[in-house]
Amino acid sequence: GNSVTQMEGPVTLSEEAFLTINCTYTATGYPSLFWYVQYPGEGLQLLLKATKADDKGSNKGFEATYRKETTSFHLEKGSVQVSDSAVYFCALSLFPLTGNQFYFGTGTSLTVIP
Amino acid sequence: GAGVSQSPRYKVAKRGQDVALRCDPISGHVSLFWYQQALGQGPEFLTYFQNEAQLDKSGLPSDRFFAERPEGSVSTLKIQRTQQEDSAVYLCASNVRGTNVLTFGAGSRLTVL
Question: What local confidence, expressed as pLDDT, does residue A101 receive?
Answer without folding.
Answer: 82
